[in-house]
Structure to design on (1310 residues):
């Protein structure tokens, strides 16, 4: 039987994890030898592999499984696109400057940090229990500045006022934030200096396209706009039918004011976005039945608006029925997001879906749920799932004059009747000459009842009509006929709505690393990343006992066999002990290791080591390769592998 | 036996291909509904899939097969990095402006276009055969401006002068190009207006990082720099050993002055770059024997310098032996590039390797070979393979003070002896006080023979030494001892050289589309893209006879079975004839199609259609799926498939 493992012997230790990630080059500050740039990170070999395995699973789980239309579009975007989309005017944060040293701070983070610090100080002064624990679970915690807490008692009135301000924080405009700073004497907590009036800072990186400097451009802050701009082509590719989804994995940029949170808040990031185009009158989803019973942890907007944070465990089916999740398509994607995150190794106990409150939604969204994953900084939004309604398609269509609509043949044509006036054009021109046009327009603009009245009058003889300006015309009956006609509308034209699941891959990757990290019970210095085989950078480590040439043919054979089985392996023949090589690969999250020793050369056997338990089994080379292949493909688990391969109790101490 | 196909019945028709690519949304001008931006393109679903299949094969062929270390680094780069690398000063083109309408032109393209136009006019005037055909094969053709040719006779002297200018074109500085325009009355051919003095235009997109505007940045024009900056981490990851290679697939940007050539010259592009770090004293490659016999078409710099373009067919082994290709590592990569391009479907008859002449090399390169692929615009550089020597690592190391070197234990330590002087520090200070430091430096800087001479003198008594400035010191024998000592050097420290294969994926993709395109002999309107199954966007089209519900379970079954076999399929149940659906998928390059009809429901049979021949075979559903799987995996060819499955001669006319 496999060994049991105690993964929680040591409490989570963030600096220890960060040291590991840096040492093993999962990622590192970009331009490090030039001093680095805040918010820019490079992924090294294990980080790149982990990311590319997550992306590959994402592609299978969403694009392939749902036949989505993949796009690969440009990052550089001419300014008019983002003027129309609203990003130039609204994709901005308010910043203030320290008036002495020029340090730049986000205005809302500053107000929040300082007022929360004062409330904390008040609680201390009153001898109340600190609220820190509870705050630690708050979604907004990550935005907080580090503020030194001083025990100063506040009046009940002031406490109440601060709490009200904090509750409405996302609602304040820049000038209002400036007013708050003045009224409440809010200064830069690092220096004690005053801060400037808040200024808007657009979060898009600006550039200029071409040599003349006359074509401003921005680096996209999301991939979504290019899906919308290509909507007509996509619809055409899908033979004119909806619903369908487009998908894109690509780089986006946000020029954050002062990023400080590692991979959780960066200036350049890889995202994966789906734009699911749907009939606004029918947001059912044909595969909804597949996810109806998936139970999610939900934190809806009503609970939050009441200032509470209790979550509900509820099936997607029930949540849609009760209207907590607005429609089937939104519910379908929340469940699929949940399934994806579990598949790659996110701990379901630390995953919840939080609905945005009205005042925190992006300018284009009508509803939004975030998949939030808990980590050492609190609950972090890792996937957003927004209903952008028809906002983007409508504004681009209005701006460019290019219709971004679906034209659908109606199964049952809509039949209607109405009165229609028709002039004898020749007679009209002869009689009214220069006024003919105005007269014709006047009659065309008449509604049903006016036309009926005129029809009645003409049946009696000449009738008088007058323009809004008061000019009168007398119409002879032979000048025009008014008749009831039948109209048949067989095409319905509409702008689709868009449901947008949007994944921040760096945030998911980082939280996954936190969820996977633990230290061996017997030695806290020995860190392990228990990444699932599906996403682990390397699946198998091949460890020859030494770098002696006699192992070369076997190493080559085993490598080739793993490659042919589609299993990514690496050889570690470095000049160090087997134990140290395995310890290094525990840090790299490599789930399996095989050792080639003198017995392998003689008997064609190989030992197999499992990362978490450090259990060792033994079998013939081909047996072990077959077992590892099934383990990596997920068709068997380690228990089953242990039934197939006997335990190894060789004399060589390989740990 | 399979049918034979005549793919060259119709001459290549570029507008026809472009219409197909646009209609099927392989790619389209980005921001098209906003009027588009020159040099920016979006890839639609088939283009994205084609690109991602090429990338996936690239990853297998290079990264996996050679255990390269993959990186994923940021695009946004602080300015100092590109100041050091030389890009700020030198990554620029000279441009001129039309003095009336402000149109911007590349100065070298302008001179070339106008002078070539005049030479052409001269040939016309003299009744000589146009040189156009031959020029069409010239690598530089693509850069030519469209110039109206007027038949004007030139003197022999002027012809000679123009030809000399054109031959040296890449060597002229900006001011020299300006001088040429004045001397030869070169004007904007579109308007006849004068042009301005040439100004340098840097091809990097500029931006600014952070809210203060104090940190200028550039979008990278290549991914290479970030490999160099991370060199120490990479070396460490590779346990301190070289040679090794890092690899990265990512977006880069070049703000071209006036891009006009579709995907061949764009402002934003995906590239795949390898930086292979190698010992400058040993550029052998351990897998060179695998490619020794690969025969390449080579166009070396000596042939070109002599003004000729004859190529040689030569094995890589011979070319390295003869010194035509400088070393094994460069030769190895040229062969591997060749193998990769053939694998994805590039026509080997239209592929050559051209060595750069000294004057056209990038500022960092010491040798460079381009894989050039012929297409309708001429020979186009699609892969560059440069030896960057130690240039980049050296300049970054000097700038940052961070050593970017390899430290290697020497197998045989180098033992040397030399004379060493050692002062009695106390006595030295007491005797010479303020001059002690200068005196000590003076003796340290002495070479072997000077030390020996001093040693001899001191053996006799006090000795006099003098500084370069002429100041003299008298040294007592007890002040210092000079002894012969033994030194052992066991570490060798060196800056590695870099061999860089760099792939422009968009150029490869476009030329592949040209090489794959042809029209059916019987109907020029029916275009086909004969993409190899390995890279085709969709491998199999599943075509139910109609959208009737009775086909649904079978369609579902066949889709699932293909998915489980790892074969990417799509269902086309659109409301149009089977013939039209197949014609659409011929344009999409889908190599196989299976049809589900009433016989399928009754007998569980399915027909299989091959794209190029339009041959139809029939078999049981499982037989057909197994056959297609092998076809796509490349383990059998269509001839073999025809042996397994009988021809289909059903009554339904499905074409």
């Amino acid at each position: 039987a496999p060994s049991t493992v105690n993964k929680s012997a040591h409490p989570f230790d963030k600096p220890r994890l960060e040291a590991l990630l840096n040492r093993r080059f999962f990622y590192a500050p970009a331009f490090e030898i030039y001093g680095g740039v805040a918010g820019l990170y490079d992924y090294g070999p294990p980080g790149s592999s982990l990311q590319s395995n997550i992306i590959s699973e994402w592609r299978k789980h969403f694009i392939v499984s749902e036949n989505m239309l993949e796009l690969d579009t440009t990052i550089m975007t001419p300014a008019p696109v983002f003027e129309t989309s609203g990003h130039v005017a609204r994709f901005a944060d308010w910043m203030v400057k320290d008036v002495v040293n020029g340090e730049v701070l986000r205005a809302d983070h500053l107000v929040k940090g300082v007022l929360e610090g004062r409330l904390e100080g008040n609680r201390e002064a009153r001898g109340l229990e600190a609220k820190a624990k509870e705050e630690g679970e708050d979604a907004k915690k990550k935005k907080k500045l580090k503020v030194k807490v001083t025990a100063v008692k506040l009046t009940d009135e002031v406490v109440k006022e601060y709490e009200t301000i904090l509750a409405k924080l996302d609602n304040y405009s820049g000038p209002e934030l400036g007013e708050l700073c003045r009224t409440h004497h809010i200064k830069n907590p690092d220096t004690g200096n005053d801060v400037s009036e808040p200024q808007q800072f657009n979060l898009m990186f600006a550039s200029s396209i071409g040599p003349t400097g006359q074509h401003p451009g921005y680096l996209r802050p999301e991939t979504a706009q290019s899906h919308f701009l290509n909507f007509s082509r996509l619809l055409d590719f899908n033979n004119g039918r909806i619903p369908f989804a487009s998908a894109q994995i690509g780089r986006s940029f946000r020029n954050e004011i002062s990023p400080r949170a590692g991979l959780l808040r960066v200036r350049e990031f890889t995202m994966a976005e789906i734009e699911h185009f749907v009939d606004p009158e029918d947001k059912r989803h044909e595969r909804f039945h597949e996810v109806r019973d998936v139970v999610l942890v939900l934190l809806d907007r009503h609970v939050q608006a009441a200032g509470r944070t209790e979550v509900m465990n509820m099936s997607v089916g029930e949540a849609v029925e009760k209207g907590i999740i607005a429609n089937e398509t939104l519910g379908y994607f929340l469940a699929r997001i949940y399934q994806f995150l579990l598949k790659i190794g996110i701990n379901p106990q630390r995953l919840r879906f939080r609905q945005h409150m009205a005042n925190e939604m992006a300018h284009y969204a009508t509803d939004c749920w975030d998949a939030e994953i808990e980590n050492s900084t609190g609950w972090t939004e890792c996937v957003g799932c927004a209903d952008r309604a028809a906002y983007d398609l409508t504004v681009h269509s209005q701006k460019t004059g290019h219709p971004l609509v679906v034209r659908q043949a109606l199964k049952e044509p809509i039949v209607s009747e109405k009165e229609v006036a028709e002039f004898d054009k020749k007679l009209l021109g002869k009689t009214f000459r220069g006024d003919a046009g105005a007269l014709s327009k006047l009659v065309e603009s008449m509604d049903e009842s006016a036309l009926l009245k005129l029809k009645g009058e003409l049946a009696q003889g000449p009738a008088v009509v007058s323009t809004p300006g008061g000019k009168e015309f007398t119409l002879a009956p032979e000048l025009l006929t008014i008749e009831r006609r039948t109209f048949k509308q067989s095409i319905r034209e509409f702008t689709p709505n868009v449901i947008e699941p949007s994944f921040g891959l760096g945030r998911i990757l980082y939280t996954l690393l936190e969820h996977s990290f633990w230290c061996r019970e017997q030695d806290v210095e020995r860190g392990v990343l228990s990444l699932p085989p599906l996403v682990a950078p390397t699946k198998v480590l091949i460890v020859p006992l030494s770098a002696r040439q006699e192992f070369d043919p076997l190493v080559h054979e085993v490598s080739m066999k793993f490659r042919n089985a589609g299993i990514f392996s690496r050889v570690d023949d470095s000049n160090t002990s087997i134990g140290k090589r395995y310890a290094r690969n525990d840090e790299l999250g490599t789930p399996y290791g095989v050792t080639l020793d003198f017995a392998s050369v003689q008997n064609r056997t190989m030992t197999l080591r499992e990362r978490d338990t450090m259990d060792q089994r033994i079998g013939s080379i081909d047996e072990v390769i077959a077992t590892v292949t099934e383990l990596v493909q997920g068709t068997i688990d380690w228990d089953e592998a242990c039934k197939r391969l006997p335990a190894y109790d060789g004399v060589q101490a390989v740990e």
In short: Confidence is low (pLDDT under 50) at residues 132-144 of chain A.
